[in-house]
Amino acid sequence: MNFLKWWLRIVGLFYVLQFVMVAIVRAPIRVQGPAGALEDAAAGNPMARFLVDTWVTFGLEVGAIGMVLLLASRVPETARILVWLIIGIEIGRGLIADSYMISRGHPLPTLLIWLVLHSIVILTGWMALQKSKTETDKIN
After folding, report:
1. pTM given for the model
2. DSSP string computed for 11-30
3. pLDDT, mean of each 10-residue run, the chain (140 residues)
4. Phi-psi region of 72 (alpha: psi -120 to 50; beta: other; left: phi over 0)
5. 110 to each of 23, 27, 28, 52, 65, how far by Cα in Å?
């Protein structure tokens, strides 16, 4: 269960870091958003405020998931379903969503980095599940 415990902790911290970067630093809007979007939001532009509010809401969701993963790392043997949840999120909101954004003409370099990160989380999550199943089978 050690691999699973550390996977939950590392991915949980990664998600909490994403919360900070998305909701507090607002890095995605600064890097990929329209120029001046944060200033326009501060000035009351409703479309820019919607953009910021959407990213903050997304950041809160990611932060909550990260905190649950960190808490679950205390009892990794009961947290396997959370790994499947993260794998599903990383496939849907990760690989599929980023592929969609690429097809819509969004900047490729940043999205390629994210595709690699999503793939790493998926692959290592699957490995953690396999290893924990093997360890459980040995005990029983």
Report:
1. 0.92
2. HHHHHHHHHIIIIIS-HHHH
3. 95 98 96 94 98 97 98 96 98 98 94 97 97 74
4. alpha
5. 18, 12, 10, 19, 23
